[in-house]
Amino acid sequence: MKETAAREAMVRLAKSLFDRGYSVGSSGNISMAVEDGLLITPTNSCLGFLDPARISKLDVQGRHVGGGRCHVNPDMRSSGVDGPA
What we know:
This protein has 85 residues and is an alpha+beta fold. It has a single domain (3-79), classed as Class II aldolase/adducin N-terminal domain (L-fuculose-1-phosphate Aldolase, 3-Layer(aba) Sandwich), CATH 3.40.225. 27% of the residues lie in helices and 16% in strands. The chain has helices at residues 3-19, 74-79, and strands spanning 31-34, 37-40, 56-58, 64-66. It has a 4-stranded antiparallel sheet with strand order 1-2-3-4, with helices on one face. It starts with a helix and ends in a 6-residue tail after the last helix. 22% of the residues are buried. Residues 9-69 form the Class II aldolase/adducin N-terminal domain.
């Protein structure tokens, strides 16, 4: 999936989860593999009001390369990203 489409899909999913009460305030995260890394909802973001441009992006080594800052589990950083799921 292309990055722009992935960002839009994440926003739709996040809004759906929020609207149905599965996420309250800034709880919960969503991530999605893209061709050259991983997209993750930024730290302290509300799933009901995500801005696609603020979704965090990590490269294949797990380094933050764009969007809002996000918390990255050390195990994830050391293992890298395998690519699209």
